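Box S1 | Example of a co-folding query
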Amino acid sequence: MPAYDLIVIGAGPGGYVAAIRAAQLGLKTAVVERRHLGGICLNWGCIPTKSLLHSAEILHGFRTASRFGIDAAEPSISLSKMVERSRSVAGQLNAGVQFLLRKNKIDTIWGEAEIADRGLVRVREASGDTPKGVFPPGDYEASHIVVATGARERVLPGLKPDGGAIWSYHHAMTATAIPSSLVIIGGGAIGVEFAAFYAELGTKVTLVERMPRILPLEDAEVADLMAKALHKKGIEIICGASVSNAAVAGACLSVRITLPDGETRILDTEKLLSAAVSWPISKDWGWSVLVSNCRMGPFGHCPRGARPYRASMR
Ligand SMILES: Cc1cc2nc3c(=O)[nH]c(=O)nc-3n(C[C@H](O)[C@H](O)[C@H](O)COP(=O)(O)OP(=O)(O)OC[C@H]3O[C@@H](n4cnc5c(N)ncnc54)[C@H](O)[C@@H]3O)c2cc1C
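Box S1 (continued) | Returned holo structure for flavin-adenine dinucleotide
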């Protein structure tokens, strides 16, 4: 008999919540994680960005205090303390997930998982630190497997984030100095959040979106209100534009974009943040073992309603 009723691969919000619910319903459950309990959301996404935005909001409050009858001197900014707080909040939530898993008697297996065969999860050693109290790499059997491996950043051609002039959201979240200018590629939620944060710190921000409006996945009314709020902060928004290329020119980066009318424009900037959509992690964990004759969608998504997928999990 398999050791587990359920193994969940990936301990992000998709995975750890499913594991807790399964354990509460009486299944002997384990999660496998290779990097961070809580996934992107708690460690590098939703939570740490909200901490940074809260710092920006307080800064804004100081700057507009006189409107409310409060005289406050121009505040001084410590980016390093903002980043430190954001990382510490993420660390606390990461520890909270560890506590919740333990409380619900879920085993945490540490390493890189793949489905080696039906019902067989093979876990290899992962790079980086291993937390205390976790199970080691090895072969683990389960009657059911949930894959909750999340997504990885999409790297735009010629714009591989290096932490120098070209940033990923990791770099934008742990910056050591406030850039004088920042071009953000991608006007989705992530791009908009960093635009608002850095504009408040005094950076000249330009937001470039390929679709006709920012926040293309949200309601148009919401996107319009957000565009107005960002304009008020001095952010330039360029929609319907795509990046053709970028080249380092001395201390600055020259980004060539193609506008909707076919004209090109060069944006000179100190930093560029690549905040385009993410790709699902759909190949590393052994998809082909389960569904040999099922083709993935163009972005690596599992096809919706792929019947063999569910059947193969049983
Ligand atoms: C900057 C930023 C801000 C965001 N802000 C918000 C927000 O405000 N609100 C919101 O709703 N969403 C937000 N998101 C999106 C949110 O982070 C994701 O939707 C969410 O994390 C997805 O959860 P998940 O569990 O599917 O995947 P993830 O959180 O990515 O978790 C997947 C986990 O699986 C692990 N894993 C992957 N492959 C393997 C393997 N083979 N073996 C073992 N482990 C593996 C990964 O290490 C990871 O921990 C934001 C994202 C970013 C980048």
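The longest strand covers residues 138-147. The first helix runs from residue 13 to 24.
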